[in-house]
């Protein structure tokens, strides 16, 4: 039974209409994006190529601390460097670079909404926007430096173009071609394999695209996409052929390596389950409803996109959370199609489950802040102290006031939300955005303390300056340093380490990280001159600077 939507008032139409959604998306994207250091992991790692570009190196092929980084082509880094340069007068470099994530997520939300409108009609546009930004796994990655967000946006752009092909064959195919080429420039061969096959597949499998005009336009779009995609590798080949060979070998290793094993498939399903919540239950309902018309473009296009992305995920064999990001546009489209047809009981159950689960998370955020501010509850307070013994909470009164205001606004918005077919996704998107804002206000300083390398690098910089006072310009060797550590060293202190080759180095200094992984055996001539411990438990790290005896 389909619910009858109630007629909202003028104020409700403003708050919960297009203007309100635009404000909600802006809050979601901008709160927590700036005001904190590059964090351990991808945030610090992928700042490295942007920093290199702003220093005049690696514009064509990404570089990290003087070494080539083969993870992704440069589209995201170009946008990040441009925004960091444009915002240099009022934003820190890393904050300006993160604005690229906001740009690409906003594009992903926009193109997903417009694709849903083209495939399913105007009523599906708002649910598609809300569900795209409402994927549980997106929220953290949307606020870090993450090149796969560019793949998400360009994949959504490709789907938008292909959705237009039955009505506007040439314009839709050209838009999809640009989306495919830019997806390759953002994510490499894996992103190309997730987009380019859509052209022949929809032409062969969908009756909507088998007309002469649509088929010709799709072939034209595919040729244009492949031609545009070839420009970057060609430019790299002409200017830095050795870098192109390095990149191609890495891409081939990813595609030809062992895929997910049986046990990893189970873990992958668990990851998909929470990462794409609450999209996947609605997707299953949509596919069940459409089981007799699955060959229509409105169902076939997002379904093929999801299959291609999941196939690459399995073949690549990497269970990193960020690798699921390109799946979100297809999932959001399929879910948006099913929202208006949800039965009253299912819609109410999803609505209440969303409210209750987010409310529980909100209470946990308040408890975590209480443990920092007043030491209650005692068990959680001990955990906070153990993981960040040097953390000092500043301005708890201001945090309390802002947190209370966010909580009250959340309650007011949810309680006045008009009943409609979009109520469940709207409640989830509003609740997730308010929960994120609450976590940023109450917990961001604590997270920044534990995930930033600023204090570590500052201490190391002083130690290195002391050692170099007697040997100016002495190089520092390293082995096994993660890329995010190298990037942080380069960003905070301009320190670039030299790789050890053949178990030997001419450098008089050696930087070693002990993070519970096996370490190489050091010769007795190396003596420690500085040590810095950070984190606790599985996150514990110990940095040691050693000097060769007699240097």
From TrEMBL:
Is Cell cycle one of the keywords? no
Source superkingdom: Bacteria
For this UniProt entry, which segments traverse the membrane? 15-34, 75-93, 99-116, 128-155, 175-205, 217-238, 271-288, 300-317, 323-342, 349-369, 397-414, 426-447
Which keywords annotate this record? Membrane, Transmembrane, Transmembrane helix
Protein name (database record): Glycosyltransferase RgtA/B/C/D-like domain-containing protein
Organism the protein comes from: Thauera propionica
């Amino acid at each position: 039974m389909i619910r009858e939507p109630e007629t909202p008032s003028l104020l409700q139409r403003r708050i919960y209409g297009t203007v309100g959604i635009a404000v909600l998306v802006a809050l979601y994207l901008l709160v927590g994006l700036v005001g904190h250091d590059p964090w351990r992991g991808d945030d610090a790692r992928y700042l490295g190529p942007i920093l290199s570009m702003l220093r005049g190196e690696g514009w064509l092929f990404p570089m990290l601390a003087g070494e080539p980084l083969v993870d992704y082509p440069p589209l995201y880094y170009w946008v990040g460097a441009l925004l960091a340069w444009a915002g240099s007068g009022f934003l820190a470099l890393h904050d300006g670079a993160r604005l690229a994530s906001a740009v690409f997520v906003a594009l992903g939300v926009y193109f997903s909404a417009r694709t849903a409108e083209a495939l399913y009609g105007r009523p599906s546009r708002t649910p598609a926007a809300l569900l795209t930004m409402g994927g549980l796994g997106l929220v953290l990655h949307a606020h870090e430096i993450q090149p796969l967000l560019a793949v998400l946006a360009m994949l959504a752009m490709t789907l938008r173009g292909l959705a237009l092909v039955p009505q506007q064959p040439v314009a839709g195919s050209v838009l999809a071609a640009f989306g495919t080429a830019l997806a390759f420039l953002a994510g490499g061969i894996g992103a190309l394999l997730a987009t380019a096959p859509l052209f022949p597949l929809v032409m062969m499998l969908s009756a909507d695209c088998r007309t002469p005009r649509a088929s010709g336009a799709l072939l034209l779009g595919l040729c244009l996409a492949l031609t545009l995609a070839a420009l970057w590798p060609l430019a790299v080949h002409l200017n830095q052929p050795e870098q192109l060979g390095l990149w191609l070998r890495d891409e081939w290793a990813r595609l030809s390596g062992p895929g997910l094993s049986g046990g990893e498939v189970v873990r992958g399903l668990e990851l998909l389950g929470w990462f794409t919540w609450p999209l996947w239950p609605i997707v299953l309902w949509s596919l069940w409803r459409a089981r007799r018309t699955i060959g229509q473009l409105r169902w076939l296009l997002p379904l093929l996109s999801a299959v291609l992305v999941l196939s690459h995920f399995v073949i690549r064999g990497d269970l990193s959370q960020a690798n699921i990001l390109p799946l979100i546009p297809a999932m959001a489209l399929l879910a948006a199609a099913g929202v208006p047809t949800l039965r009253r009981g299912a819609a109410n159950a999803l609505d209440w489950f969303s409210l209750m689960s987010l409310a529980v998370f909100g209470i946990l955020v308040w408890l975590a802040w209480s443990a920092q501010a007043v030491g209650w509850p005692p068990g959680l307070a001990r955990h906070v102290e153990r993981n960040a013994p040097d953390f000092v909470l500043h301005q708890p009164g201001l945090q309390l006031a802002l947190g209370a205001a966010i909580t009250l606004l959340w309650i007011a918005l949810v309680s006045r939300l008009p009943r409609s077919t979009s109520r469940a996704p709207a409640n989830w998107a509003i609740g997730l955005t308010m929960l994120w804002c609450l976590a940023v206000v109450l917990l961001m300083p604590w997270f920044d303390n534990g995930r930033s390398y600023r204090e570590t690098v500052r201490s190391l910089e002083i130690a290195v300056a002391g050692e170099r006072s007697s040997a100016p310009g002495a190089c520092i060797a390293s082995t096994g340093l993660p890329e995010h550590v190298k990037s942080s060293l380069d960003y905070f202190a301009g320190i670039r380490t030299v790789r050890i080759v053949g178990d030997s180095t001419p450098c008089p200094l050696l930087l070693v990280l002990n993070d519970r992984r096996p370490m190489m055996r050091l010769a007795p001539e190396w003596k420690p001159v500085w040590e810095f411990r950070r984190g606790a438990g599985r996150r514990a790290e110990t940095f040691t600077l050693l000097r060769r005896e007699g240097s």
